[in-house]
Write a structure and sequence with these properties.
21 helices; alpha/beta; five-stranded antiparallel beta sheet
């Protein structure tokens, strides 16, 4: 990267974005790498960086950030270990922390929350290569952390020898203190204080100066006043010497342990260094993902076609709440954009946004723009923006700009993006405009894409008349005297000097005189621009109306769809209601059939054959009418009707089938009353019910109820579920004999589905029973394969 392109990076404020990026990194080296990030040298490299950034952001959203704390530089320590040096506790702990980070980040990548190693990439995508570089070394990690408890503390368990030495040190120290305590107890009058202290690592007691000859031992120190002598009594000198020897052994053993750990680190040095480098790279990539999330940025579509299409792009260094998004494109139909408009209208910000977002994409950073935005990979980005006049170098504004432009034209090549701010300003307008056009043409001839801001009307005309060059303007609201910061591509901008001056109170005669001094050609051009602006506003209004009409049409379509769906639901509901009514009629027919069967059984003792045939005929007729939905004749008098719903427990007569039923509850919302008719539960309207006389029971003497067993109705079904096969068959045969005696034609045997053993035994017995005419399994609504319907002879 040349000095000129590096200068352009500063002009476009890429270093400030990189400072934001570094703030999201964890390790110091990752922060340094973020600050040193530069645009990729090829489109392929930039695309790979963007892919890794996208993968990092996806993992952040799904799993959170990986644990990268504790990653410290280990290169210098490993180099020293390789030369045979002994690493100190801090260096060894840093290596252990790096190994732990490698292990936990590897587990994070594989999705293993337990922290175990895994070979799967765990959905890491473009980052799987980085994660695969991590190997970790849990044995060495545990070895270091097991030996070193802290920067100043070695564990007793670091070696058996160290544990033995420290045990002896504790015993010796205890023995010395015990001896000194006895000495203090017996010679307290010679002591300044009854305490044990140390001088030079040896145990001493404070003796009064006048009694120095009364306490035999070694003098180690004297107080500043001279009144106290710190003497090591002769009784503990030998033990103290032994203690010093043990402490020396402890230091040598610790040195040996550190040397041993250093050798082990050196043996795995390449793998540890690879883990560290991979962790730093992962840290830097995840910093890019965090920055993307913080900016609410998106991955741009990178291309080598020279097409840039930024949708709702925001300058990343402007406050999110105040920046106005701008949409612009370059390379689609034109390779040069000339931006005009009043000062403070946003021209320079637009230029910087274009350049900065192009650089960010080349660095592998997501850009603060809408999804689907495209950026062209630029071989280099050159920017001449800002006033760089220098008194020391005798450079005016024009000279400083021209020096930059000369350097840019000398260095730029095909595929470069060149940005000029206020091109040709600072000199004679006529000459400046001519120079501006010539400079743009020279840059285009070199294959560069160009964006330039200007106030010169000549450049507006140039953009309107030359193919591949397009006008753009920053919109300005004359009514409020404020820029809207909207970029309008295809529309040249107006200076609006007269309108702004008039709004600010400049007298009309001064404005009129100024207009007269404007050349006819310039005035005509401004009139054309005014008409174009009016036409643009009209088109925008028409577009807004068309968009409103489109939205209204979509809303009407949505409402029509909802109405259709609601109609279909109501139709289906009506169909369900019809089906339910049909089921009610069938249920009533079945209830009537059961009631008639019971009447037949009661009358069988006295009824003649003709009467029985007549009863059956009536039953069949009632069943046919109910199935066909025909109302049964109801000859009941008017007083038999109910004027209000009967109370639960009331016995009523179903008019449709002339069947007795008992009211179970209150009517539902539709007015249907729940009833129990025999074994069936049915629903009927109030006008379908009639009053009936309660049944009379015969009573024995003493008031107890007596039932005539001869007149007791037999059930039309027998339930064998839960019976063994033999017992079930015997119970069924008794039931069939009873049914034959009572002249029943059809009965039902309930045997359940289960394993089928009981059903098979039932069918075998039915085949042999001479009273059975036919039998079949139940149909839908009858119990299906769980019952057998038997027709008797």
């Amino acid at each position: 990267m040349s000095a000129l392109t590096d200068k352009s990076l500063g002009t476009l404020e890429l270093p400030r974005v990189l400072e934001l990026l570094a703030g999201f990194a964890v390790s110091e080296e990752a922060k340094e790498r973020c600050l040193a990030l530069r645009p990729a040298v090829s489109a392929g490299e930039a695309a790979a960086r963007l892919e890794r950034t996208s993968a990092a952001r996806a993992m952040l959203e799904q799993r959170g950030a990986p644990a990268l704390t504790g990653v410290k530089p280990v290169g210098a320590a490993l180099s020293r270990a390789g030369l045979g040096g002994v690493l100190n506790t801090r260096e060894l702990l840093d290596i252990a922390a790096t190994l732990r980070a490698a292990r936990t980040v590897g587990a994070y990548a594989s999705g293993d929350k337990r922290g175990g190693a895994s070979s799967a990439d765990g959905g890491a995508g473009a980052l799987s290569g980085l994660f695969r570089r991590l190997s970790g070394n849990k044995r060495l990690e545990d070895r270091i952390t097991g030996c070193i408890l802290g920067e100043e503390e070695i564990s007793d368990h670091a070696s058996a020898e160290l544990a033995a030495i420290r045990r002896r040190i504790r015993l010796t120290s205890s023995k010395i203190r015990e001896t000194l305590n006895k000495f203090i107890s017996s010679h307290g009058k010679y002591l300044q204080d009854a305490l044990i202290t140390q001088r030079g690592g040896r145990f001493v007691i404070p003796v009064k100066a006048e009694h120095k000859n009364d306490v035999p031992g070694m003098l180690h120190d004297v107080s500043s006043s001279g009144a106290t002598l710190f003497i090591e009594p002769a009784a503990v000198v030998q033990a103290d010497n032994e203690l010093r020897e043990l402490e020396a052994k402890e230091r040598r053993e610790i040195e040996r342990i550190l040397a041993e750990l250093s050798v082990e680190c050196d043996a795995s040095g390449d793998a540890i260094l690879e883990d560290y480098n991979a962790l730093v790279a992962i840290d830097a990539v995840f910093a890019r993902g965090k920055l993307s999330s913080d900016m609410n940025a998106a991955a741009p579509l990178l291309n080598s076609r020279g097409v840039t299409d930024l949708r709702l792009a925001r300058h990343p260094l402007l406050p999110k709440g105040t920046v106005v998004p701008v949409s612009l494109w370059l390379g689609k139909g034109f390779d040069t954009l000339v931006i005009t408009g009043p000062n403070t209208g946003g021209k320079t910000v637009t230029l910087k946004t274009l350049g900065l977002l192009t650089l960010m994409a080349a660095c592998g950073l997501h850009i603060p723009a809408a999804e689907g935005s495209e950026t062209a990979f630029a071989a280099a980005v050159y920017a001449d923006i800002g006033d760089e006049q220098s008194i020391a170098q005798s450079l005016s504004t024009f000279s400083s700009h021209m020096r930059n432009i000369v350097a840019v034209l000398a260095e730029a090549e095909a595929g470069s993006l060149v940005l000029f701010d206020e091109l040709g300003a600072g000199t004679d307008p006529v000459e400046g405009a001519a120079l501006a056009v010539a400079i743009i043409e020279a840059a285009r001839a070199q294959g560069c894409r160009v964006a330039a801001t200007t106030h010169y009307a000549e450049l507006k005309t140039y953009a309107m008349s030359v193919e591949g060059v397009e006008n753009a303007s920053c919109e300005f609201d004359v009514e409020t005297l404020r820029p809207t910061y909207r970029l309008l591509i295809g529309v040249p901008g107006r200076s609006n000097a007269f309108a702004i001056s008039q709004r600010l109170g400049l007298p009309e005669h001064i404005i009129g005189a100024a207009k007269q001094r404007v050349g006819v050609r310039d005035a005509a051009f401004e009139d054309i621009l005014a008409k174009l602006e009016a036409g643009r506003i009209a088109l925008e209004n028409d577009r807004a109306e068309a968009e409103a009409a489109r939205r209204q049409a979509e809303e009407d379509k949505r409402k029509t769809g909802e109405l259709r769906a609601r109609t279909e639901r109501e139709f289906e509901k009506a169909a369900d209601s019809a089906r339910a009514e049909a089921r009610l009629i069938l249920n009533q027919a079945r209830a009537a059939a059961e009631e008639a069967a019971r009447d037949i059984i009661k009358a069988k003792q006295s009824a003649s054959a003709s009467e029985l045939a007549e009863t059956r005929r009536k039953l069949n007729e009632a069943e046919r009418q109910s199935a066909a939905g025909e109302p049964a004749p109801s000859p009941a008098p008017e007083e038999a009707l109910f004027d209000k719903p009967p109370a639960p427990g009331t016995e009523v007569l179903l008019a449709a089938t002339n069947t007795r039923a008992v009211v179970l509850g209150e009517p539902d919302k539709s007015g249907m009353i729940p009833l129990q008719a025999g074994i069936m539960k049915v629903m009927a309207p109030l006008n379908g019910l009639r009053r009936c006389e309660p049944k009379k029971d015969k009573k024995q003497k003493g008031g107890s109820v007596s039932v005539d067993r001869a007149a007791e109705p037999v059930s039309l079904e027998v339930d064998l579920r839960g019976q063994p096969a033999d017992d079930g068959v015997l119970l069924m045969e008794r039931f069939i004999d009873d049914a034959v005696m009572r002249r029943l034609e059809t009965v039902t045997v309930i045997h359940g589905k289960g394993t089928g053993a009981l059903r098979a035994a039932v069918h075998t017995a039915l085949k042999k029973n001479k009273s059975v005419k036919t039998y079949r399994l139940g149909k839908y609504g009858e119990g299906e394969t769980g019952v057998t319907v038997v027709t008797l002879r």
